[in-house]
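Re: weekly structure request thread

Next one in the queue (311 aa):
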Amino acid sequence: MKGPKELVVAGLGLMGTSLIKALKETGPVRAVGLDRDRRPIQRAQQDHVIEEGALLGGEEENKVRRLLRASRFIVLALYPDGILPFIQLYRDAFQPGTLVMDICGLKGAFVEKAQALMPEGVEYVGTHPMAGKEKSGYEYGDGELFLGANFIITPTRHNRPESLQMVRDLATAMGCGRIREISPTEHDRMIAYTSQLPHVLAAALIRSWNGTEDIVSYAGGSFRDATRVAEINTGLWTQLFCFNQTELLAELTRYQNQLETFRALLETKDENAMEAFLAQASQRKINWRKTQEGDRYDSGRSDHTSDKSRR
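Done, posted below.
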């Protein structure tokens, strides 16, 4: 099996739980879970998702530190505003040779700061598995959540090649497909367009309807697809949007420019220009889909397979 044989996961929500379940489907893994809520810890132990757990920010702080000291692979499945405070509070428990990584959807705001807080001999790696659900919480954890998903690594000058290989092995064990490495700042610029902007657009589309009719009776596949991600973890996404304010504002401006272009074509009924506008968008989508399908084919012939039966 590729991937860690043991790990501590801080945060037993959708992503942290899904990560543990995905690893356990590939082989024996000893998982420890930390959370601020005792309920997911208890459920995870009952479900044999974790072997041991401890409550953060409570009467089990000594146990938390003991578990962190014993681990050499720590995954932070926390909200953006919880990552640096966690590190500041528990950094004294990180032992030399430990790899600490996050799976947060934001990077530029804290990766370098997190590494600067690491004790001597401890590395920090930012990662982003591009998967999720409209629901959040332990009960929605799914071992198949990451099958075929993109996995982004944001290495820094502090990361050793062997540490990055450990992270790649983790992504492979999770079932991820395409694995890419980019800088933390480039990650945030790209994600503002491919992830954050679609969520904003879905929310805006839902909010733009002021009628009282039974809208569900008139909705087809295009409406369902366009609004699927409007049902989100509002607390988490508010943080992601605000932390990435500069990049998201830039993408909103670009999108608004495209809407204004189309509006002008519609107002003047410029059919030729409108058809060219739509044709350019259609061709770009076709090209992107071909690239995606090609990557899926290639990944099926490599260790980064998304076919669960091959894991």
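The chain is about 50% helix and 15% strand. The mean pLDDT is 91.
Next request, please.
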